[in-house]
Each structure stands twice: as C-alpha cells, then as structure tokens.
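Could you help me review a protein record that somebody else here produced? This is what I was given.
***
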Amino acid sequence: MKKFTSLLIGCSLALAGAALAQQPNEQPTPKNKQGAGKTHTTQPPPGANAAKPEATAAKQHGARNEQATPKGHKGEAPPKPATSTGAERNVSGQPAASATPGAKQQLGQHRKGRNAPGANAKASPSASPATAAKTSATPATAAASASAAPSVSAAGQQNAQAKGTGAAKKPDPQQVQQIKSQHANFRAQPKPQQVPPVTFNQNYRIQGSDRWQGSQYEVFRSYRPERHDQGWYRSRYNRVELIGGGYYYWNNGYWYPAWGYNPSAEYYAYDAPIYVGHRAEPPDKVIADVQAVLQQMGYYKGEVDGLLGPMTREALTAYQSEQGLTTTAVIDEPTLDSLGMG
C-alpha cells in the first residue's frame, strides 16, 4: 500500500512539472475590454533571437494603426491618410506613432466619444485640434459681428435722421389755424428787461442782406432807417399804429418801424421790416403766431410775447436753415409761406 501511494504521488509530480514547463508558451492573449485600444504581444520564447528595434517598432506601429482605424459606418467612406506632413495620423488627428500609455488612453477616450450620440456632429473626422478650436470660435465671432453691424447700421440711420430732421418737420395746418384763432386779439407788451430795445441809427443795414438773392428779399436789401415826424408819415401812409411799445407804418405787405413818429414810444425789439402778407394783420400778432408754431416744432424755447427778440431770431434762423431757405433771421415772405401763414 505504501508503494502504491508513493508511485501515485510521483506520477502527479511528474505531470505537474510537465504542465508547468508548457505554461509560458500556451498563455492566451487577453481580450480587449470595451474597445480600450490596448495591444498585448506574445512574448518570444527564451533563447529566441530578438528582432531589431526598428522592425519591432514598425510592427507595433502598424498594429496600432489597424486598431485605431474606426470601422466604417453605413454609407461613410473611410478617411484618407494625411500626406501633407509625411507622418501618418489616426482619426483624432494625433500622430499614430505615439506608443506611450497616455496616448493609448486618449485613443480609447476618442473611440468612446465617437460612440456618444451627437458628439462633434459638425466637426470633420480628420480635423486637427487647432481647426476644431477655430471652428468652435466661429459662431461667437459671427455673433459679435452680427451684433456690431446693427449698431454701426443703427448709428448711421440716427445721423441721417438728425441731419434730415428739419427737412422732415412740417407745420401741421390744423395747429396753425388753431394758433391763429387763439391769437386773434393778441397784443404785445414792451419788455425792455427781457428784450432790450434797439436804437435809431441812420447808417444801419440789415447784416448779410446784400447776399440774399431774389425779389422776395429786395425790401430787406434796400431798407434804410429814416426819422420823420407824424405829418410826414400820415401824408404818405394811410395806416400807422402803435404796436408793442412803438409805432409802425404799413406798406405793401410789410410793417416798418416809424422812427420819430412819437419819440416817447420808440420801443423796437429789432429794426427791420416784418412781412405779414396782404391782409395787413398787426405785426405783433403775426410774430406771436410764428413763435407758437416754432415752439410746437421744437425750434423756439422762449415765451410767446409777439416781440422779434434774439431768441425768436435764433429760432427763425434754425428753421430757415433746415428748410433750405435763406437765413434772414426775420419774418419774410418765403418763411411765412413755408409755415402755412402766407
């Protein structure tokens, strides 16, 4: 019995030794898990001649390229190898010759990313990281350009409107008629504190009138202040009235200052003819109508007082300039017609 047991033990040891001797050559290559892209090579038997380093690297390089090449999808052509740099690249754009563990991990993550739905849907498979970054920055740049264009376009339209504001402004006929009806019994009062009076000067000429072209401005070009007594005025003009602290005489659509008619009543805010049309309306009423209309249109900021003071002349100048009229700073025929009061 002891001999049989010893013989059985000896046979078992012999079989175990034979199995251990064959184990290094029969160890299988483990399967790749989840497409990690790792490659295990079979170790050469002891004593075998080792291949040259260049051949081994080339073999491993080819194996990695085969594993890194994605399987063709339905209807999708395999990507063409890059030839511009002379080095082979895989689908991620990274050099395929990299054999470091970090490169293998990046390759595995890239292959996982291709399986994710909607990932890099617009990016080209062969695009490099720099190209992808440029592509991703393009929408932001386009958005900035799109947002800037309207600004530039909005800034241009506002300037055009500002320049054409005067041309676009026109008095409302209904408002003009309403204002005229309100001022039917208007009478101006002298305000020497607010509107200082001018003094008589026989050498006075209306500034710039020599450059006003047209028959409508002949009265202003030829105006010369004169000083006479009441008899002189009454013998020549059938209408002389006290208006706003000074006497005026009527002549062919214009009211003129009657200097000397009454030395105690010579309050004139401005020394110039005032056009009122052929209906011979009082000049202070016409001035008040013009002031009110220009006030509603935004040109005149002062009080409607019926006096042709500095603020009224400034408003007239602005209106005439933007309407393309001759800037006379007085109430003339073209200005009154433009305001709908002719």
Summary: Strands lie at 240-243, 246-251, 254-257, 274-275. Residues 25-104, 107-168 have pLDDT under 50 and may be disordered. Residues 169-338 form one domain.
